[in-house]
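Researcher: We're teaching a course module on how sequence relates to structure. For the next exercise, students receive a sequence and then see the predicted structure as tokens, so they can try to spot secondary structure elements on their own. Here is the exercise chain.
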Amino acid sequence: MSAAAGKPRLLIVGPPGSGKGTQAAFLAERFGIPAISTGDIFRANIKEGTALGKQVQAIVSEGGYVPDSLTNEIVRDRLHQPDAVDGFLLDGYPRTTDQVVALDALLAESDARLDAVVQLQADTEEVVARLLKRAAEQGRTDDTEEVIRHRLELYAQETAPLIEVFTARGLVVAVDGLGEVDEVTARIDAALAARGIVVPAV
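Model: And here is the predicted structure for the students to work with:
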């Protein structure tokens, strides 16, 4: 099923402070698809004390990363749930090229593939200023400029190979993530519409 005829299968990426979470929620709502965040799934399972949650908690509490194999299994389970069969918005997955391979294989099982990758772009200095302001407002003293810059560097290192892969496939839709929320939303809609992925009329 093409994205133009049905619901799209999307991925959203963007640096900390780019408003990715907000735009992911808006996108999912407008297209009537679930926003699937691996971080949210992990946190929910930890909170609920499930077997998976205990497994993840043990890894994270020791400062480790949740292995690809476990993350892939979680995404597989979530994408097989009824609300995600016809379309979804992934946020936070895939994070590695190995996870891209796993996602490709999973989607291929139902003869599906990603329709587009929305990449929110943001000037580093503006993002640093935005995150420092947020930290001050919320009293988050750990979010120093040094910590924020380190997070942005890690994001750039981690996502560069993914963006390369998806750009080679012609899937990346780059959008300026700075500005008023509704302005960014309008840019995303216009960029997706240019690819034939149109928000359904209400």
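Model: If you want an answer key for the exercise: The beta strands are 9-13, 35-37, 88-91, 116-121, 172-176. The CA atoms of residues 18 and 179 lie 10 Å apart.
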